[in-house]
Amino acid sequence: MVMDLEKQRLSIEAARLYYMSDYSQMDIATKLGVSRPTVSRLLQFAKDQGYVRISIVDPLEDLDALGDQVKQRYNLDTVIVGYSPVNEYAEIQKHISQKAADYLHETVQDTDIIGVTWGRTMHHVALCLQQKDVRGVEVVQLKGGISHSHVNTYAAETANLFASAYRTIARYLPLPVIFDSIEVKQMVEEDRHIRRIIQLGKQANIAVYTIGTLNDDALLFQLGYFTEDEKKILQSTGVGDICSRFFDQQGQICSEEINSRTVGIDLADLRDKEKSILVAGGQQKVEAIRAALIGEYANILVTDQFTAQALLQE
């Protein structure tokens, strides 16, 4: 009996040192004054007696189940959930960008027309793209990419990186994304070249885009497009933007006046895409992502596990 209690005590102590304090079996042998083979037998005894329980959490397995739940909730074709070790925006952006790039590498085929937007997340995606030997692919900007500000939108770089990955040249919308007046915007859209680029964006079978917030530090607010009054209107009625088109909690356009001055693809056109791919994550974007999914603009979502869990909560 005394021997059994001693063995029990030693096995538990050995297990604590090995599993909780990362001691090597040789270090444990020295500390307990026994041989290394004895330590190995003590550790096995601890497992056999149920003193040690080992569970392995496979994040990939959990992510698939999580993605299926989001897919069902929002009636999506595909949900890809990337694993981020921490719930921090920069880290999340890194991991979902890689996931989106990997997905594109798997799915882009000859003669696809890929519509792209710009912004920090899209630039990250573009940097992660792998070269793919495809023929006849077109890459087109879905919205104007020129700003009034020195803040970098990465518009040209993003389009160029996409075009380079798929062995083509980019088609640009060399315009501001939002004009000061609807009259000027309509006049510009009548240009034959501009009209052709916008039409190509409508024909794109793949659209890749992210989502913007209406926080004060949002990229579009830094680019000088809006007056303070316009900014207040958007912040009071909207939750986010896709392709610089602002929408409310139900995914409906929240300012028709501003929307009428915006150059690029209409939100409704995104619903017709074979692959309408929204790449977005982070706590500050959850409300906007939910609204976009309610509006049914995306059929494919690339996000992280923290955002996916938040999207499943009411």
From TrEMBL:
The protein, known as: Deoxyribonucleoside regulator
GO molecular function, one term: carbohydrate binding
Sequence ranges assigned to domain Sugar-binding in this UniProt record: 59-313
Transmembrane segments annotated in the record for this chain: none
Originating species: Paenibacillus aquistagni
Keyword Metal-binding applies: no
Keywords of this entry: DNA-binding, Transcription, Transcription regulation
Family per record: Belongs to the SorC transcriptional regulatory family.
Pfam families according to UniProt: Sugar-bind
InterPro entries (alphabetical): NagB/RpiA_transferase-like, RNA_pol_sigma_r3/r4-like, SorC_transcr_regulators, Sugar-bd_dom_put
